[in-house]
């Protein structure tokens, strides 16, 4: 492991498209913006907007402000861009390595623990459809692809080898350097993330497995369309 790279400060200029757009919007706003305002203006789910705002705050690029109010109720929390930029440099890769090694070295089933954490966060970052609304497999795949795009995976969905089979090609891993040393934890986390998102959508699709680094910069998630009892499956023999 390269200690110099591990201790190198984060390059805050590399925010990713969505997060950089959120920061630009905060800079252009006349005052603090709430999570729902940001979500509406950016076309994001509120939890995803909060995820980006909190990350910008942790990076020192934004700050939280609590609204003073005399009426009863919870005070409104707004976010504004910090004019002078980050105060001090961040070293999140070191934190990621420390926490990942803790999970890998002390938990009896680190992969299962990481997948469960991924499921929780995948559900948290995903919008649930209205009651009784049922997504098609294609619609669910589009939504899943959008979520993974927001998180920086540069995904591309494509049909698999058979009917009801899909591949989600992840061409950029946001945690690649950590994943290279701890695939059992990081890749399980990402698989759980997708499974949690699909479960939250009540999607007729399951994420079967994640094949890490099939190419130097490519991981592939294998997904399968599932069917309720009595539904017609592609390729199934019909009745006469």
What would you note in describing this structure?
The protein is an alpha+beta fold. Helix content is 44%, strand content 17%. It has helices spanning 3-7, 17-28, 35-42, 46-58, 92-106, 110-124, 137-150, 176-179, 183-201; strands at 62-66, 77-81, 155-159, 165-170, 205-215, 218-225. A four-stranded antiparallel sheet has the order 3-4-6-5, covered by helices on one side. Strand 5 (205-215) and strand 6 form a beta hairpin. The protein is globular, with a radius of gyration of 20 Å. The protein starts with a helix and ends in a 15-residue tail after the last strand. Residues 234-240 have low confidence and may be disordered.
Annotation keywords:
about 240 residues, alpha+beta, four-stranded antiparallel β-sheet, two-stranded antiparallel sheet, 6 strands, about 45% helix, globular, disordered C terminus
General form: globular
From the N-terminal CA to the C-terminal CA, the straight-line distance is 64 Å
The helix/strand order is HHHHEEHHHEEHHEE
Number of strands: 6
């Amino acid at each position: 492991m390269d200690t110099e790279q591990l201790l190198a400060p984060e390059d805050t200029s590399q925010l990713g498209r969505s997060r950089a757009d959120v920061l630009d919007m905060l800079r252009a706003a006349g005052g603090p913006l709430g999570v729902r305002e940001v979500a509406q203006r950016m076309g994001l789910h509120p939890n995803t907007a909060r995820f980006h705002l909190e990350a910008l705050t942790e990076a020192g690029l934004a700050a939280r402000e609590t609204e003073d109010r005399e009426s009863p109720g919870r005070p409104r929390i707004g976010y504004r861009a910090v004019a002078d930029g980050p105060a001090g440099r961040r070293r999140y890769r070191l934190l990621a390595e420390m926490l990942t090694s803790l999970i890998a070295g002390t938990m009896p089933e680190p992969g299962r623990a990481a997948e469960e954490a991924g499921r929780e966060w995948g559900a948290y970052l995903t919008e649930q459809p209205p009651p009784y609304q049922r997504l098609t497999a294609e619609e669910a795949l589009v939504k899943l692809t959008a979520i993974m795009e927001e998180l920086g995976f540069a995904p591309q969905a494509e049909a698999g080898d058979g009917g009801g089979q899909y591949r989600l090609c992840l061409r950029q891993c946001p945690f690649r350097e950590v994943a290279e040393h701890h695939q059992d934890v990081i890749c399980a986390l990402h698989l759980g993330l997708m499974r949690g998102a699909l479960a939250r959508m009540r999607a007729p699709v399951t994420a079967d497995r994640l094949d890490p680094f099939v190419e130097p910069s490519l991981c592939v998630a294998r997904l399968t369309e599932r069917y309720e009892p009595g539904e017609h499956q592609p390729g199934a023999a019909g009745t006469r």
